[in-house]
């Protein structure tokens, strides 16, 4: 009852006209930033920190949280319509969402993403409100061995389940890991795979890899097949909204995605990318068991699950930030700096020393989710009308959009050149039937896997047994073994069923 009373007090503070206006401004700005690849919510909040320093702390953090949530909602829009994720956490959404858009189901894909984001956010924030102490204990229990186990699970799940062809999936993962190793090794200071180019010392930006593989690679692949279809073909946007069948296919992936995303937000294990890819892989595997072959042609489950996982992770990532002072993403790190500028120290004492601010912030997350639903859902058919643009103009626009977004991220012409090199790699992957997902997961999680492994080995003075010592690590590897065994058993059965 005490928690409920504190939450009601938080709503009283968050529902003041000034804080409502700041929340609205935050979710609108976050949505805009989420749509534009290369900007990111971390940069948006970093620019807002000095501007909002004169504001009341509660109002400032309500605005920051609105930007954080809005960025996740907006990132799915361009992922679905243009195959260009605004946020790296929307990459898994692009795989089936873009195919839905090409099949005249863009409004359904957008509506599924928005509804899934809203429902998962509400569920996750509710869990944060009532179970924060338990979530903090979960975060404390994770160390380098557990992080390494999670990355291994994500690597194998993405390579085997998502890719379908295990050999090609592992090959793609190897390409991604190679790209992730470019630059200076943070622990030893060694220079790796830079080919003597100073601009590569900082590594290859994830924005360049994401936009290059998905957007530029798709444009080059479509251009290579232009003679087989009219250059000015218009893609119809289709009928708006979700019917009963769409809702029936979406609600279970929403719940499963939320269940995957909630724990991953609590632990600093690579942000929302792991749960979104795991959700996509789980939905694809379940579809295969049902005999549903729509994955790879625009399955609505492939949008519903990852988007729910994405936003559930975003909501619960505030638990380690507020309860431990431990940021789990770049955006959370900027918010941690903002707390320090206001003279506050996030941690267990924050809930007692700054309870008014904390509960107003948590209440504003519910309000911001409702605002985002109202702002985004009615406009799904409007956004979908972008697909009425003739295809040659649309893909030219994607190239311009991607180039400007990548240049804006670091104002470096070399990044633009690198964008087209990675885009050519994306074209070759499509041309020869290699999956893109394992490449992306390798680039994103490769540094985390390497750092976690080396830290675990340093802790144990080279004893490999430390990787399997903790209960969480043992549980993760057990899940992995069960998944591999089931995959090995079920795959031949499906093959015999297909030939029978």
UniProtKB/TrEMBL annotation:
Claim: Transmembrane is one of the keywords in the record: yes
Coiled-coil ranges per UniProt: none
Keywords: Membrane, Transmembrane, Transmembrane helix
UniProt xrefs under Pfam families: TctA
Positions of transmembrane segments: 20-49, 61-82, 109-135, 147-164, 169-184, 204-223, 318-339, 359-380, 392-412, 432-453, 465-490
Domain DUF112 stretches: 20-440
Keyword Transmembrane helix: yes
Protein known as: Putative tricarboxylic transport membrane protein
Native source organism of the sequence: Actinopolyspora xinjiangensis
Lineage: Bacteria, Bacillati, Actinomycetota, Actinomycetes, Actinopolysporales
């Amino acid at each position: 009852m005490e928690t409920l009373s504190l939450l009601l007090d938080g709503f009283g503070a968050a529902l003041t006209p000034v804080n409502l206006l700041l929340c609205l401004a935050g979710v609108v700005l976050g949505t805009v930033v989420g749509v534009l690849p290369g900007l990111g919510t971390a940069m948006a909040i970093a620019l807002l920190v000095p501007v909002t320093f004169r504001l009341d702390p509660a109002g400032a953090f309500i605005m920051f949280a609105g930007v954080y949530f809005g960025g996740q909602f907006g990132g799915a829009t361009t992922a679905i319509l243009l195959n260009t994720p605004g946020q790296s956490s929307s990459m898994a959404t692009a795989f089936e969402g873009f195919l839905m858009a090409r099949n005249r189901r863009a409004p359904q894909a957008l509506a599924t993403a928005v509804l899934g984001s809203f429902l998962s956010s509400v569920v996750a924030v509710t869990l944060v409100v009532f179970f924060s102490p338990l979530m903090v204990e979960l975060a404390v229990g994770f160390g380098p061995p557990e992080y390494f186990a999670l990355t291994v699970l994500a690597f194998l799940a993405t390579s085997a389940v998502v890719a379908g062809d295990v050999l090609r999936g592992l090959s793609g993962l190897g390409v991604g890991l190679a790209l992730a190793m470019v630059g200076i090794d943070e622990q030893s200071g060694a220079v790796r795979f830079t080919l003597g180019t100073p601009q590569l010392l900082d590594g290859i930006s994830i924005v360049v890899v994401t936009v290059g593989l998905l957007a530029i690679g798709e444009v080059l692949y479509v251009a290579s097949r232009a003679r087989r279809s009219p250059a000015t073909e218009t893609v119809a946007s289709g009928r708006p909204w979700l019917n009963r069948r769409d809702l029936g296919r979406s609600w279970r992936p929403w719940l499963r995605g939320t269940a995957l995303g909630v724990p991953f937000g609590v632990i600093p294990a690579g942000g929302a990318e792991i749960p979104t890819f795991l959700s996509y892989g789980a939905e694809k595997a379940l579809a295969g068991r049902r005999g549903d072959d729509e994955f790879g042609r625009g399955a609505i489950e492939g949008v519903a699950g990852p988007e729910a996982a994405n936003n559930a992770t975003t909501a619960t990532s505030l638990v380690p930030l507020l309860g431990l002072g431990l940021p789990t993403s770049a955006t959370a790190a900027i918010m941690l700096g903002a707390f320090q500028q206001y003279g506050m120290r996030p941690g267990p004492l924050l809930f007692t020393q700054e309870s008014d601010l904390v509960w107003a912030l948590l209440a504003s997350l519910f309000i911001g989710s409702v605002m985002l639903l109202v702002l985004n859902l009615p406009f799904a058919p409007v956004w979908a009308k972008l697909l009425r643009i003739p295809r040659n103009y649309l893909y030219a626009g994607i190239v311009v959009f991607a180039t400007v977004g990548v240049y804006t991220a670091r104002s470096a012409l070399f990044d633009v050149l690198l964008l087209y090199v990675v885009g050519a790699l994306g074209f070759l992957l499509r041309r020869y039937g290699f999956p893109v997902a394992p490449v992306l997961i390798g680039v994103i999680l490769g540094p985390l896997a390497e750092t976690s492994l080396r830290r675990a080995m340093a802790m144990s003075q080279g004893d490999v047994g430390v990787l399997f010592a903790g209960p969480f690590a043992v549980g993760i590897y057990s899940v992995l073994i069960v998944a591999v065994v089931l995959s090995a058993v079920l795959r031949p059965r499906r093959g015999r069923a297909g030939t029978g």
